[in-house]
Design brief:
The protein is mostly helical. About 65% of the residues lie in helices and about 0% in strands. The protein has 5 helices and no strands. Helix 2 packs antiparallel against helix 3, helix 3 packs antiparallel against helix 4 and helix 4 runs antiparallel to helix 5.
């Protein structure tokens, strides 16, 4: 592997930290999405021995969506990092395989527990990941220049 490519593999975060960040981000986004979905449904009827049924249902939906998104994020990032470290490449195939595994295991399991559902969910997540990664939109461009948030040239006193 070329040393210039190796630099892109060396991030500030370890693979474990990336998995933790992906899982946490999934939990946060899923919890927020669960709150939104819960607000779209009608409030359940008040029962005699159940206090605050709307709040209980909202919290249950928030937890369900949060756990699902956290699992998808953790599995996706985990498989992607595993492949990246194994193959020593950073390309769209790592994300596509991570998307397929996450979709097939997590969403396939929740969506009916059938092989057909698992393959469809995995293929959808893999295609989405590959489409996003195919643009190769990166924030790091190695063109040999260093960019500073300030100017390094001195201004002449005549311009003042």
């Amino acid at each position: 592997m070329d040393p210039s490519e190796l630099r892109y593999l060396e991030d500030e975060d370890t693979s474990t930290m990336k998995v933790i960040k992906g899982t946490t981000m999934g939990l946060v986004v899923g919890t927020i999405w669960g709150t939104i979905v819960a607000s779209w449904h009608d409030v359940p009827r008040v029962e005699k021995h159940v206090a605050l049924p709307g709040l209980i249902r909202t919290l249950r939906m928030m937890g369900n969506y949060g756990a699902t998104f956290a699992a998808v994020g953790g599995v996706y990032i985990g498989v992607e990092q595993l492949l990246q470290n194994y193959r020593m490449k950073r390309d769209l195939f790592n994300g596509a395989v991570g998307g397929f595994v996450a979709g097939a295991t997590i969403l396939g399991y929740k969506g009916g527990r059938s092989i057909n559902t698992a393959i469809k969910a995995g293929a959808t997540l893999a295609a989405t990941s590959a489409f996003i990664d195919s643009g190769e939109q990166t924030t790091r461009i190695d063109n040999g220049k260093e960019y500073f948030p300030y100017t390094t040239k001195k201004r002449s006193t005549i311009e003042s």
